[in-house]
């Protein structure tokens, strides 16, 4: 929740008038602050864009019931506005901002102000076709400033190192790169030749085998010995290309 003073100068010697302009400006500042602050708060490896937007445009659709007259307030500065919305938890390109106006006596009036948000930001766009499971390369993408209002949670921005990812699906030229379409490479891929460390009591032996599934360090996957095609074992990935089987 954000609290602001409603004052924008004296309106009347005996009463405060809070009009559509007062409320609209407060709502715009509130929404802009939320979006900018949240961009900086994101974890480095979050799916969401972590660098600040290039531009944020907040359109006030309407201010229901404005203007509002507060007889107990001598001037607009005596009226405080408290603002809150679902945007504080999750972004949406359309939202309702709840505005509560309170005069010095504690009397309040609350309205819901609908807003439409447009965000522009440099994001990666596919330049050359990329096949599923192919490692990404910057030469296959280009940065374009686009309206990402409908893709705020999934668009991939310039803060991402594309060389650290592989494609989950085929990517076509002109397509906005979506975080759900890429992944970090697995430490072991299906059909990789791996070292299988077999632990039986106090004895450890290492044999060569084949991965039947892909996974990362800490995951459990199925593997088999190269000489035995009939039996498979559950093995824990302990380092790249190496798994542990406890028997």
Instruction: Please give the number of β-strands.
Output: 15
Radius of gyration: 28 Å
- Let me know the largest β-sheet: 6 strands, antiparallel
Instruction: Catalogue the unreliable spans.
Output: 7-13, 42-50
CATH class of the largest domain equals Alpha Beta
SSE sequence, one letter per element: EEHEEEEEEEEEEEEE
> Can you name the CATH architecture of the largest domain?
Roll
The whole-number mean of residue pLDDT values reads 87
Number of domains: 3
Would you mind describing this structure in some detail?
The structure is a single chain. The chain is mostly beta strands. The chain has one helix spanning 20-41; strands at residues 2-5, 16-18, 55-60, 68-70, 80-84, 94-102, 108-126, 141-147, 166-167, 182-183, 193-200, 203-211, 220-225, 233-239, 242-246. The radius of gyration is 28 Å and the shape is elongated.
Summarize the SSE layout with pairings:
Blueprint: E1 2-5, E2 16-18, H1 20-41, E3 55-60, E4 68-70, E5 80-84, E6 94-102, E7 108-126, E8 141-147, E9 166-167, E10 182-183, E11 193-200, E12 203-211, E13 220-225, E14 233-239, E15 242-246
Parallel strand pairs: 11-15
Antiparallel strand pairs: 1-5, 2-4, 3-7, 5-6, 6-7, 7-8, 9-10, 11-12, 12-13, 13-14, 14-15
In short:
The chain has one helix at residues 20-41, and strands at residues 2-5, 16-18, 55-60, 68-70, 80-84, 94-102, 108-126, 141-147, 166-167, 182-183, 193-200, 203-211, 220-225, 233-239, 242-246. With 247 residues, the protein is mainly β. It has three domains: 2-118, Thiol Ester Dehydrase, Chain A (Roll), CATH 3.10.129; 120-183, Alpha-Beta Complex (Type Iii Antifreeze Protein Isoform Hplc 12), CATH 3.90.1210; 193-246, Roll (SH3 type barrels), CATH 2.30.30.
